[in-house]
Amino acid sequence: MFEVPKLVDDLDVTIARYAIFGHPVGHSKSPLIHRAFAHQLAVALRYDAIDAAPGTLAAALARFAADGGVGANITLPLKAEAFAAARACSARAKRLEVANTLVWRGDHWFADNTDGEGLIRDIGERHRIDLRGRRVLMVGAGGAAQGVLPALLDAGVGKITITNRTPERADQLCDWIGDPVRVQTWYLDDLRRAGDFDAVINATSAGQSGAAVDLPFSIANPRTLAYDLSYGQAASGFLAWAKTAGCAYVLDGLGMLVEQAAAAFELWHGERPDTEPVYAQLIRESHG
Ligand code: ATR
Fold first, then answer.
1. Within 10 A of 183 (CB to CB), how many other CB atoms are there?
2. pLDDT by residue (tens digit) across 53-102?
3. Alpha-carbon span 78 to 69, nearest angstrom
4. What domains sit in the chain, N to C, each tagged with a CATH number?
5. Measured from the CB, is residue 144 less than 6 Å from ligand 1?
6. Can you tell me the distance from the alpha carbon of 158 to that of 131, in angstroms, rounded to the nearest whole number?
7. Angle between helices 254-269 and 276-286 (to 10 degrees)
8. 212 lines ligand 1 (CB under 6 A)
9. What are the distances in angstroms from CA 43 to CA 20, 132, 197?
């Protein structure tokens, strides 16, 4: 019989370091998720949460790499800075010009973006909802909306209507995506005349400040999927609206969070974790 080392400290090897960078970052569930994946697949790693003020990420990443850092997740508001700090990137990160995942390649950072994949996997694989050919309403036109639009189009949605408090931003996003046949904009004030949608995605940050976007019930029908890209308290207002509107599926972004993390984990470690137990744990915790 041989002794199995119980603690990482017992191992006579240098542990690869990973971290999530954000500002603030204390609330992040990424350390918990990645440690759970690592435990599941018997991967030895250290995963920290590192606060980096805007404008300081490139220096923080350089220090991290010098200190054994080989992978990083990036959250708000640093995703554009992360992209700028990388010397190479995936096609999807290049399209978005923002990154949520970095891989250290010996002498430079490689950038990727797994947010869109996370959303599509959560909707399609976990919840088994087929978005192909569907009419989607995107509420919000900031970074969160931009981050998932290409993946929605690649997943084969029929039409996306973007609506936003500031209509000019919706127009800008529509121009950026460059698919006038499938993507159009609509005034938020005039949504009552837009008909109903198969999916309504809340990509605004309104819930983070306790505010709510005023949406008419007429945009939902009894088969509608309502999805908030955020989770927890920030999603509660939109989810309450969706339940009252009678939507068939009412989901927050917890599943997307776990799926984008799994895609990052696979990029770093070459193995895809089973996301179900971690998702179940997060759901249990979020229900107190
Ligand atoms: P993120 O990267 O989280 O998307 P962002 O780029 O600042 O952050 O975008 C925030 C989005 O939430 C925007 O669409 C914003 O609308 P505006 O473009 O009009 O600012 C939207 N938003 C934030 N608070 C809102 C509120 N109280 N009501 C409606 N929309 C809101």
1. 22
2. 999 999 999 999 999 999 999 999 999 999 999 999 999 999 999 999 99
3. 18
4. 17-113+255-286 (3.40.50.10860), 116-252 (3.40.50.720)
5. yes
6. 8
7. 140
8. no
9. 18, 36, 43
Dist CA 75 CA 101 (whole Å) = 9
pTM greater than 0.90 (yes/no):
yes
Instruction: Tell me the pairing of strands 101-104 and 69-74.
Output: antiparallel
Using most ligand atoms within 8 A of CB, pick from 162, 173, 205 the residue to mutate for ligand 1: 205
- Residue of 165, 202, 208, 231 to mutate, ligand 1, most atoms within 8 A of C-beta: 165
Residue 159: active-site member:
no
Crossing angle, helix 143-154 and helix 167-177, to 10 degrees? 40
Q: How many CB atoms lie within 10 A of CB 194?
A: 18
